[in-house]
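Dear support,

I submitted the protein below through the web form. The confirmation email said the job was done, but the results page showed an empty box. After a refresh the structure appeared. I'm attaching both so you can tell me whether what I see now is the final result or a partial one.
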Amino acid sequence: MRPPHPPPPERSAELRRRFAEEARSERPDLSTLCLLVGAEADGALDEAGLDAAQVELDRLAGLLPYRPGGPRAWAVALRELLGDRLGYHGTPADYRRLESSLLHEVLRRRRGLPILLSVVWMEVARRAGAPVYGVALPGHFVVGFGADEGRVLADPFDGGRVLTGADAELLVVGATGDRLEPSMLRPADPLDVVLRILNNVRAWAAARPERSDVALWAVELSLLLPSHPARLRYERAQLLVRRGDFLGGALELEAYAEVVGAVDASAAEGVRGEASAARAMLN
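What the results page shows now:
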């Protein structure tokens, strides 16, 4: 993939307005939010490209058999179409690529991170009427079909392999060392899915200091979500200072210090000291 170039400021402002509006709607649309993230990352993704991605998800849903049966039948049908026939899957190398976190690129390459491949599975299955949802296991995202005793899990990163209870247990033990708990199988909220995707983008950028631009837009989109960690404001402030916006970073640090001061006065003083240091760089 060519190095992604951000959209011009006017386009970025419009994308962010739409992202915030969708995130605050009564029923946020996961594919729309993911595609707006992609458009913020890749200025080449225009309105026609956004529409084409949605059309592709519709097309894939139309290739599924009509209501194949219960949860397991749905999981098998998705695996046979997306995994076996079309080759959607992931590899360890995909963790090193930014496009693995961008839905339009995952649709084009048929490769991506577990959470983005799960978004493809969910959006295709949802359009076809399947009882599908995301499952945010610690360290690995999968999809679920059905509920409670009849629940079936599938791993899109592994081509949609249908998981046994032991498989899911191994995924959790491998990631955390702890046992699989029933609470880990709760359906993931769409906004939590988007925040987790943006966290992955931030992690990708953190390993590449020269891509602080990517880290900044990922933080700023995260801050547009109705619920987000307050510490993201501190991260944004640090990024602004690193990128030479000393005044903007100082103002953000001072605002964050006010928030922190309510619970930790000494930590707030430390942040105010960082703000003063940032202001000093203006002289």
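Response: this is the final, complete result; the empty box was a page-load delay. The two ends are 41 Å apart (CA to CA).
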